[in-house]
Specification:
two-stranded antiparallel ribbon, 3 helices, about 15% strand, about 160 residues
Length: about 160
């Protein structure tokens, strides 16, 4: 990674200094990247649910949902081969890096019978009860992931300061 420091001029060259900064991989060994992805997914899901609720009476609107957990589970069995872990100290073989999983948003398919069978309004496939329940579940997941992330940073901070 290169960064230009234009505030500091190199007197000999007359231009900006370029400083090469080392890439810090310390946090890649923790659960921070995965929790960050989870928070991104929950934030995206919140926006999708909010959009669904806002468009509850819009004719022809198709509900949206976010897939993250399915992709995360699929990354654990990369290559189509599930590897059994017989000891908790084993490294999961064949798995992609779970922190590389990115959430995706897509339209919810219409149920058999068309949009009229989807909910009582018959306007689109958004069901307010389902959306509100999913919103509550998503809020719980977000708060849990945020607490885990805060706890991880607190542990790192205590490690740096040392035990007292």
């Amino acid at each position: 990674m290169r960064r230009n420091l234009c505030a500091t001029r190199d007197e000999r060259a007359g231009g900006c200094l370029t400083v090469r900064q080392p890439t810090v991989k310390l946090f890649n060994t923790t659960n921070i990247p995965l929790l960050t992805r989870a928070l991104d997914a929950y934030s995206l899901r919140h926006r999708a649910i909010s959009s669904n609720i806002a468009n509850i009476s819009s004719a022809g609107y198709r509900a949206q949902e976010v897939s993250f957990e399915d992709q995360l589970a699929a990354s654990r069995t990369a290559g189509g081969v599930a590897v059994a872990v017989t000891d908790p100290r084993h490294i999961p073989a064949g798995a992609d890096n779970p922190a590389d999983v990115t959430p995706s948003i897509h339209d919810v398919p219409l149920p058999p019978g068309g949009a009229a069978a989807a909910n009582s309004s018959g306007v689109n496939n958004v069901d307010i009860d389902t959306e509100m329940a999913e919103l509550a579940r998503n809020q719980i997941r977000f708060r849990f992931a945020a607490r885990l992330l805060a706890g991880t940073f607190k542990d790192i901070q205590e490690s740096i300061r040392g035990s007292q």
